[in-house]
Amino acid sequence: MIKSIRLPSGQRRYPAEEINRILGTGGIKAEQDAVVLYARVSTKKQADAGNLERQMERLRAYAQEKGYRIVGEHLDVASGLNQNRRGLERVLKMAERGEFKKLLIEYPDRLARFGYAYLERHLKHCGVEIEVTSQREPVDAHTELVQDLLTIVTSFSARLYGARGGRKVRQGFRELIEDAEKAQKGEV
Q1: Residues classed as catalytic
Q2: Which PANTHER family match (predicted)?
Q3: Of 72, 74, 125, 136, which residue is 20 to 30 A from 88 by alpha carbon distance?
């Protein structure tokens, strides 16, 4: 039953909270200390070596040290470039329902290699702050650019090797080399 307020004119008004309750939107109002932990490794080999569990243990210890209440833990074994990650999807759905206030991650690249700013903005819109628990030493712009380029080339080559036939792979690498040479000459 929807609760309404009857005005002196006989009209009914329905509070937004009631509409959200019926529709299942608007979310649960999370307490300020409610956090979700998110950990990711790129390969099954890393997960089997215990890297994923150690990452999660460090996040748990950090949350306990800060006095946070853990309301969810989500893991992924997938590339940071992969956009189809179940754990990340669950985190986003919980955020959209307003179930927590902070997302704890060990490093920004555990959340996403690229598009981190978009995820950060979306989570902020949902009322969630990302808290990075481990700070790496600052990376200069040149080193960061090289790291990003290597990530892109690795992703590109993985897609090419997955393509049928060596001809496509060779052609793809020729195009990649030509593009890199053009970029070096400033033609792009």
Answers
A1: 42
A2: DNA-INVERTASE FROM LAMBDOID PROPHAGE, SERINE RECOMBINASE PINE-RELATED
A3: 136
Which residue pairs from 148-154 have beta carbons closer than 8 angstroms and sit at least 24 positions apart in sequence?
148/114, 151/80, 151/81, 151/113, 151/114
Cα–Cα distance, 110 to 79 (Å, whole number): 9
Q: Which amino acid would we find at residue 158?
A: A
Whether this prediction's pTM lies above 0.85 is answered by no
Do 47 and 98 lie in one domain? The reply is: yes
pLDDT in tens, 25-39: 555 556 888 999 999
Q: Which amino acid is at 104?
A: L
38 and 128 inside one domain = yes
* Cα first-last separation, the chain: 62
Question: Which range marks the domain in which residue 70 is found?
Answer: 34-132
